[in-house]
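User: Predict DNA-binding response regulator's structure from this.
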Amino acid sequence: MISVVLADDQTLVRAGFRAILSGEPDLDVTGEAANGREAVRLARELRPGVVLMDVRMPGMDGLAATRAICSDPGLRDVKVVILTTYETDEYVYGAIRAGAAGFLLKDTEPVDLIRAVRVVAAGDALLAPSVTRRLIAEVAARLTPPPTPELAALTRREVEIMDQVARGLSNEEIAGKLSISHATAKTHVSRILTKLGLRDRAQLVVWAYESGHALPGWLP
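Assistant:
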């Protein structure tokens, strides 16, 4: 069972998402928050698998709430998905950089919302990878890449796998492309995250583009 907390200041939006998710046997909406502060409190109290987080809310907004949740070591297993109206919102980029697993447009189809919650809970892939990576690449391209001595800590195979993650491939797809097992691909990704001090795949993609290692031209 995947537990979900909904954070949005619009009651009707929360009701709509609850209706969609509650119809699935493996999904359980365990809490609702009307602002970021409530979302953080519920995340600490309920330890949900996924928090669907609106970007703009009164008081503590979605970005601040995402930072609070993702920087809390006790909430490492809680995945945050940002809900937004605009796919090019740089505010969303900030949330992903802060640790959000990805983002969904509010007008997404119900089947895609359900799939997204399951994918993020499994920790296997970014949501809407082409859109997410395009946003990351566009913003990161305007930054000056910092020195990345951490890259030296990665083995040649780990760098190869990081490249595939930055291209949006899942562990299963990486396994097929590199002729390794799914478990081996997953282990490599976990080691890369540990060596770079990153929370999840979303932050790894951000790191790859911000460091200048990944290039916008990689996007489909």
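The CA atoms of residues 148 and 211 lie 6 Å apart.
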